[in-house]
Amino acid sequence: MSGPRLRIPVTGELFRTVLANCSARGLAITGLTLATVVVARIGGPAAVGEYALLRMLPGLVGVLCVLGLPGALAYFLAAPRRTLPRLWPTLIVLGFGGGLAGTVAWVVVSPLIAKVFFPHESEWMIAAAGATVSTQLFLTIGKTALQGLEDRRGGDIVIAAEELAFLPAYLLPLLIGIHGVAAIIVGLALADLVVAVEAWRRVSGRLGWRRLGLARGDRGWWGRPDRALGRQVASYGLRGQVGGLITLLNLRLDFAILGAMAGPAVLGAYAVASKYAELLRLPGTALTWVFYPRLASLGGTEAAATARRTVRPTLVGIAVAALPVALLTSPVMRLLYGAQFGPAVTPARVLLAGMLLAGGSGVASAYLYGRGTPGLNSIVLGAGLVITVVLDLLLIPRFGALGAAVASTAAYLSTDALLVYLLLRLTRLPRQRGNRTPVPAEAST
């Protein structure tokens, strides 16, 4: 049974927490926007396209190799699982092993990556971008560890800083004479490292460890890993990893297909449109971030009731915010990026329609992860991925960026609607007894 102190109100403290996380993500988007503007002014749409690909592809390789560790951290760091013996040495081995494997994999396939996505860049330069596989994982694992430890302030700072840090990190190589894609690679790696060190410093402080956890035993993260525990983490992580990977593909597969078919210049305009539309996804992403570790700490009945109560306000809030964001699309695009990015306006408006249910799906995903059933989330997202692939291949060759926007919008609305439906079905009250809420079996899917 869960005590009263664990109850999560839908208003008050929870509202402030979600608002703070939204603000952090808003700052992150501001930093990303400023960086994109600078990259666009220096190199044009083609440079923006390369920047978008270099932010996406190394991260994708990393999550494939790390066995779902980022998605599993919040579950295993929630009380009481965070006290499991040898938990941290096990997590560290998974993280280091995944980072090394991802970097090697990138270098091996870099000739193909260069040929398909960066035809005007040298293979050795693209191979060097493999360093960002490890730096992105270093940052991502530190950030999700803060989420699991419920260091809300620290997590918000890292979320904002990981985007804000790129611009000064990008300007530094420019000042010393490094230009083009090399400056982007150096900027990405340097920004990741700076913010990751801060994230891990906060993790160490949250746990009360000295010397950044370098001590052995129960006062640090070095020691002998537990194979059985590692299998548990990997099992949960891989089930969630499928959903996380599908989410990433649903959000960015259009980037890869459009970049391969239409080139970096068209992709650059579309990347701007996509990032603008994703403003409406901020509340849902923030709700998932805040709710996931909290719901993992609650009893099943209370978690179900809390999640169910939160869905309707999020859906209404996103719908209200969508209209002014849509009306401001054209002036914002032209003011920030210039007339050459005018073709991004229509795809951005189409993508905005796809974000209308994102708030509700954010709550649903947090509930499924928090109850130990990430596989259900993955199954639903898999349906959206099928829609994305089929429609991208059908529409992009004929309609370009607009076709990619239509395909993504169809996938977003389908998966978000299914997730909301699944949440409402799993948490509804039985007709026979109105005082209990059914809860799906934990860690079964």
TrEMBL record:
Organism of provenance: Kribbella alba
Membrane topology is: Multi-pass membrane protein
Positions of transmembrane segments: 26-44, 56-79, 91-118, 124-146, 167-191, 255-273, 315-337, 349-369, 376-396, 402-424
Source domain of life is Bacteria
Give a yes or no for keyword Transmembrane in this entry. yes
Q: Is Amino-acid biosynthesis included in the keywords of this UniProt record?
A: no
Q: Which cell locations does it reside in?
A: Cell membrane
Pfam families on file:
Polysacc_synt_3
Protein name per UniProt: Polysaccharide biosynthesis protein C-terminal domain-containing protein
Alphabetical keyword list: Cell membrane, Membrane, Transmembrane, Transmembrane helix
Question: What InterPro entries does the record point to?
Answer: Poly_Biosynth_Transport
